[in-house]
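Exercise 7. Given the encoded structure of a 270-residue chain, write a plausible sequence.
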């Protein structure tokens, strides 16, 4: 029986979690996630696709695991999931006190400052996870992304059909920004400091003569800052948070130069 069939069967009938074949299948899926040979979500011909059965395996991994004491030098943890290991062989730089859980994939060239990456997440090559940034369960982070200090990338396990947060290649996410609820930030976009994006946050392009609204997605190469929109309540009119697209990051073969120009030109705080 294929792994996917075993996982689906256990999802419908939790008594199967005691069966050796089910336990082996679940652990096999988590090992593949850890190595990056499978992903919770991946790009396809019709856009990003969620592999629901893999998310189910992550959820089912918790009840089959026992609590254990994990000792790291003088530090002690008590948890069901082991910490990721063998960073040298993976080609990943990990600064104390960075932590990634087993079942998270970190590609060669990733740099983790003191930060956290949860199970099911995928972090591609050349990406910097800066100080106190967090990458939630099943989040998908592309190549050459910079997650600045204090960035919060939300995780998602349930509902299983829900899309994870996706940060595509070459994006710059400014300090203390928060991206949650399956929002997708397309290639080479720049989020200024303190931008908060949820599935319902209005993302307003104000570069033209008329505003253009998006929700759930930041278009490629957009330069985004936090803003507010007026909304009337019984007690009066108040500003509610939104995100403003104030310009475009210019296409360039030198993305670092392109980024610096975008930040200077639009006076974006990062």
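Solution.
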């Amino acid at each position: 029986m294929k792994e996917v069939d075993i996982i689906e069967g256990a999802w419908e009938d939790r008594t199967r979690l005691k069966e050796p074949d089910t336990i082996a299948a679940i652990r096999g899926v988590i090992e593949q996630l850890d190595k990056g040979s499978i992903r919770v979500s991946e790009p396809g011909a019709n856009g990003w696709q969620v592999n629901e059965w893999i998310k189910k395996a992550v959820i089912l991994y918790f009840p089959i695991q026992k609590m254990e004491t994990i000792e790291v030098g003088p530090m002690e943890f008590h948890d069901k999931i082991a910490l990721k290991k063998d960073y040298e062989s993976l080609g990943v730089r990990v600064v104390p006190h960075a932590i990634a859980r087993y079942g998270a994939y970190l590609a060669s060239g990733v740099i983790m400052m003191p930060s956290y990456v949860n199970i099911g997440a995928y972090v591609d090559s050349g990406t910097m996870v800066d100080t106190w940034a967090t990458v939630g369960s099943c989040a998908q982070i592309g190549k050459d992304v910079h997650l600045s200090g204090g960035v919060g990338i939300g995780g998602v396990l349930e509902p299983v059909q829900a899309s994870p947060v996706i940060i595509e290649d070459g994006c710059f996410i400014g300090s203390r920004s928060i991206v949650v609820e399956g929002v997708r930030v397309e290639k080479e976009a720049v989020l200024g400091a303190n931008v908060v994006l949820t599935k319902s946050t209005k993302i307003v392009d104000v570069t033209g003569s008329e505003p253009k609204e998006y929700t759930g997605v930041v278009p490629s190469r957009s330069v985004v800052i936090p803003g507010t929109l007026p909304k009337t309540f019984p007690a009066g009119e108040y500003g509610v948070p939104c995100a403003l697209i104030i310009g475009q990051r210019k296409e360039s073969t030198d993305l670092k130069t392109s980024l610096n120009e975008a930040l200077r030109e639009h006076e974006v705080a990062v």
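Remark. Helices lie at 3-12, 20-35, 52-64, 87-90, 255-266. Students should compare their own answers with the one above.
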